[in-house]
Structure formats: structure tokens, C-alpha cells
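The authors assume throughout that readers already know how a fold can be written as C-alpha cells. For illustration, here is how one protein appears when written out as sequence plus C-alpha cells.
>
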Amino acid sequence: MHIPHLRSLLLVLACSSPMPAQETPFTYHSLVLSDGGSLDYALVLPELFEPERAYPLLLALPPGAQSREMVEASMNRYWGEQARQRNWIVVSPVARDGRLFFKGGEEQIPALLRHLRVTYKIEGNRMHLAGSSNGGRSAFRIATQQPYEFQSLVVLPGFPPADRDRALLADLTHLSIRMFAGEDDTRWVSAMRETLFDLQALNADVQAQAFPGEGHVPPSLDGEVIMDLMVALHGEQDSASPSRDVARVLDDFHDAASKADEERYFGHFSPEAIFFGTAPEERWSLAEFRSYAKDAFKRDSAWIYVPQERHIDLAPEGRVAWFDEVLVNSKYGVCRGTGVLRLVDKTWKVCQYNLSVPVPNDMLPGVADEIRRNLKRAK
């Protein structure tokens, strides 16, 4: 259960001098929920925040009672100043009415995730998820409920809080999962080890570390160490790659829809663009598609499709690109987008986008029969 690459991070922490006292790097905000109540959360923004720029975003779940006091303790220990200096956005919610985020409070998280997508540009499209102690258990609960929203899961410590969460671990195999605990807390280490073995059996990208001589929440992760790990998990962006330029256009294309930014969204299309919707008759010119979508763009969010996987190829001359991507939508589930982009005055423009819902082969006969029945009723 040893993670070799953490040795250097721990040495950096051991050799560094204490951080000087600084003013609180986070502010509190309140999100109004559909039931009329609200969800309070602490927010860290990058040192020189620019609203139009994309940033990595971390949802950090607090330990203990998940109160304001616990949010502040966790922010000051791990996510606050360290995240601000590294140009990350961090959001840490407060348990409403004392309902922990694995004991009913998790019901409020989808609204928070939607709010974050509508409000901020998220680098790489997917968020990161972390939690300590009860926050770690909450992180497993939320990850199994909303797996497509995240690209990594870090708990220090944490494990699935119930059998129903453990039964859904297969849904987390696309995440980078890192687990930490102090070796002296044998109960949590045992639960972490069991989770590790379950995830390894599923071929997940998972690592775990138990720190000798340390208790429940290992102090070896304090300060810069855990934030260094988050940065490493997020990975470097290749700003010089043409395919990366195409990916950025597609990322911004989806982001504009999530924020109902009509001009930015349709500005990504070339004049001759064609959009294919999921229904057989939905083959639209750019003008037809814009007319169809006008009511959706009057809302706070037109639609939200979260990319999970993407493949991009470029023609030899480098002026045409084609792609396929896996998307997840809260209503339609797993979808597929395919299409073509071309360079127009040195800017990549979408000239075809085809949105479809893949059907598993064993379900296809039943789906085909249902389509035939619907066509007969329509006649």
C-alpha cells in the first residue's frame, strides 16, 4: 500500500518552514435550493481570478459534523491558500441542519454541481472530489451517485459508507482514486484496505497509503502536500498541440451551452454547419438549429453534457479535424457526440456535430420494436 512518489512530497513538507499567518482565503456564499432552503458553502478563487478563464475545480467535503467550523478547519489545513496560489477553485459545502453528506445531505449536491457548471468554466470539464474522515465517506457516496462529474477522488481518510455504495464501485473505475489514513487508526485502515482490494479487482486507477505512527487524519498530508497531489492528478495541459486546440474549442462549446451563452455557443459553428439531434428528423442547418434551441437559451442553462472521453484526429494538412466523444447528461445518461471541425481564419469551427444515444446490442431488438410501434401509432 505504499505510494513511492509521495516520498518526495513528504520530504518537501518536512524541510519547509511554517507558513506565515495570512488572511482567510475563502468567502461564504449561499445557494437557494428548490425546496426554498439554502446550502452554504465556502469558496476559494484563484489569486487573480478571471471569469472567462477555465480553472481546475475541487469539491472538498469537510470532516466531523461538516459544520462551518469543520469547513474552516479543513480549508485552513489543506485547500485554502494553497489552492488560491495554484489557481484552483475550491468549494466546500456546510451540512444543512446537521445532515451529513452521506446521511441525507448528499441530496443537495446535484444542485450545487449544476450551479458550479453554470457559474464557472471548469478546466478539463470534470471536477475533482476530496474529503477527510466523514468528508471522505461523503465523497464516496457522492462519487457513486454522480460519477460522471469527477475525474479524481481523494480521501484522507475515507471509505464507502454503506453496502449500497460499495456495490457501485465499478462506476468509479474511470476516476483516479487516492486514499490515505494514519496507520494507528486500525479500523479506518482496515476499511481503506478492503476498498483498495475491491477497486484493484475492478482494474481501477487506485493507490492507498497508511502512514506509520500517525492517527486518524495523517498530519503528513498537511499544508502543501495534498494540494501538490491534486495538481499532479489534474495533469499538465499541452498548450502547443493542435488537437489540444480542438479540445479547447469543444470544451468551450459545451461550457457555453451549460451557461446558456447563445452567442458564444453558436459562434463555435462554421456558416455551413449541420447539427444532428437524437431524433431521426433532427438534421438542422445552423439557422434551423438556432431557431430550435432559442427557448433553451432563455434559461439559466440550455443543457449540460459532461464530456468523459474524447478522441481527436487531424487531417495531414492540419486544417480539418474529426472527433468522437462520450458525454453524460442527467436526463439521457451516456451519449455520444461525433463531428468535424475546420480551420476558419485560424480558428477551429464546428461544421458538423452529431449527438446520439448508443444502445447496447442486447437491448437493441427491444428498442427497435418500440421504435416501430411508435411509428405505427404516429401514422
User: Anything to note?
Assistant: The longest strand covers residues 333-344. Confidence is low (pLDDT under 50) at residues 1-22. The domain at 6-234 is CATH 3.40.50.1820 (Rossmann fold).
